[in-house]
Every structure is written in C-alpha cells, then in structure tokens.
C-alpha cells in the first residue's frame, strides 16, 4: 500500500464553532474543501499532503486519513472488516499503536468495547501475517487508528496528528484556567486584527492570546514547535517530506516587525508564566509585559488597535458582586482609555456581560470546553462618537 501517495477522504476536526476559521486556514493553504460541518472539514488529498496541514493549521484538532469505509451492525461485523485491512502495510509489527473512536451504535454500550474490537482485529491480523504483534495502549504519541461508527456506517482512519493539534507546543507552563491555543487563535482571527496595529491583552493570565497574536503577526506556524506526529509512525513515511515542510515554515517567518503587543496582569506570577511561555515560542521580544491592574495597562493613543479581555466567568447563577464590578470596570476602561480601538470581551457568563455597560456591535459564538461562550465586540469611537450607546 503506497498509502502516502494515494488520495483519500481526509477529515480535519476542530472544536465546535472553530470550523469557519479552520475553513479559512485550509483554503488559504490552497486546498479545496469537499464538505464542511460544525466540527471540521472534509478534503480529498494524499497522506503526504496531510503533513503540510499538520504543521500549518492553528485551529485544527486532528487530521484523519481514511483507509476504509464499510457497513457494520454488530461488533463481530466490525472485527471482520477491520481484520481484512492490510495492517502489516501500515503499522510496524515491532511498533506501538493506540485506538480512538467516535461511536454511536445501538449494539455498543461503550466506545471502549469498540476500541478493544479494533485493537484485537489489528493484533490478530499482524500475528497471522508476521508472527508477532505490535504493542498497544492509550498513548497517542505513536501510530493512532481512529474509528468512526454511527449506526451501520463505519470509517477507519489513520490519525496523522496523534496528539491534538489544538495545543501548539510552546506552553510549557499552563497557568490558571488557560485558554486552549486553537481557541485563542480562533478568537484572534474573529477580531479581524490587521496584524500591524497594537494588540492589547489586559488580564492576560498565562498569555495565550498575546502569544498567539505574536505568532500570527510574524507568520510562525505551530509546526515550528513540534517534532512528533502520528504520520511519522505509519509505514512508508519519508522524513524528508517533514523536514522540507519545516524549512518552508522557517523561511516564511517575518523577522522584522514593527508591532506593539501588550500583556498585563495584576498577578506577578501570571506575567512571569506569560513571559516564559513567550520565550519558548520565540516571541518574548515582541511583547511588552506589565504587572498592573488592567486599568493601568498602557494603551497607545496613536492609531487604531485591538483590545481583548478574557476575564473570569464566575458562576452562571448567583454572580459574585466582585466580578460584576470587574466587568463594569472593563467597560469603563474601554470607553475612556481605548477610544478608536475595537474592544473585545470573551465570556461564558451572559449575566456578567450585562454589567459591562456597553452595547455589543457583534456577538461571536464559541465554546470554551463545554461552556457556551461569546466574543463580544465593541466599537469604541473617538471624536464626535466618543462612546458606544449604553445598553438599555
């Protein structure tokens, strides 16, 4: 099986509501989308082309290359169909593989049972053909096989990513309640920031928004921070294809930028975490770090820019009075200190959002984990329209 050179169905997954930004990324890389859906897109490409996508995409989670589609009603049907695949052409018999799945079948009470059936079919096939079996377990840092099984329809994929792409590899110190890197990238892309004007991130936490802004502005792709992917453990992999793509990533980095990114936080520890993560990402010299209350965050007055808050959400019910005051202060800060800017507040608490005291020009839907969130956009006019309308 010359699997790296054969075109097949490829599913690129992402967190819910990141699909529009993933679509833009995929088309910008020159690929044609066959189908898009709430949690991803479908392409028809080779496994080798998946290498480029793995290294470049900021909003993706997994890139799955289909090797077989079939009908299966019972667990035995599943086993027989999986055992018929030429796994000896895909997996090193002395290697290691894991199985993941997305299962919705009335004959399966738990996806773990489906995973076990897939694992047993692969192992039995390999023992029959090679006389020895590969090791298996739950680690996703080697070969990963993914099963999608809904009712009688099943697809088996090679997960070319392995560990999720949603983590971009530079954040060695997570900090308190960090925003996932893929989500942070999607939020920044949703602001339509021009990558040249100031990017201000008060209450920065572990700095993911500020760091992702610096990475996007300097065209630093996630593949620069990672050296292990699922595709590397599939038989037929040519490492030169990977290193050729990495050379392209290095060459496309914009080294000299006239850019102002400010990350501030009241916590000295949070700012130090941000600084260290930014240094790992190679963008610490592009970010101005400030330990201060967000109201004292320096905001350049010349020209327009973007200010993005990701505050605590609190509880949906029984909102704390301290957070209510914080949200009101954020609104006051944007009105008085950020005239001419586009202001954004990312929150999962609509009750607290009402305390901001500004009328949102736009509300963009996101999920942070399983929490329904909104990115609220505020037009902070200068001149004759000095402030937005106060929300009734």
TrEMBL record:
Q: What is the name of this protein? A: RNA methyltransferase
Q: Which residues form the THUMP domain?
A: 75-135
> Which positions fall inside the RlmL ferredoxin-like domain?
10-64
User: Looking at the record's lineage, which domain of life comes first?
Assistant: Bacteria
Ribosomal RNA large subunit methyltransferase K/L-like methyltransferase domain span: 169-375
Organism the protein comes from: Pedobacter ginsenosidimutans
- Alphabetical UniProt keywords: Methyltransferase, Transferase
A UniProt-annotated Pfam family: THUMP
The GO terms describing molecular function are: RNA binding; rRNA (guanine-N2-)-methyltransferase activity; rRNA (guanine-N7-)-methyltransferase activity
Q: Which InterPro entries match?
A: RlmKL-like_Mtase (IPR000241), RlmL_1st (IPR054170), SAM-dependent_MTases_sf (IPR029063), THUMP_dom (IPR004114)
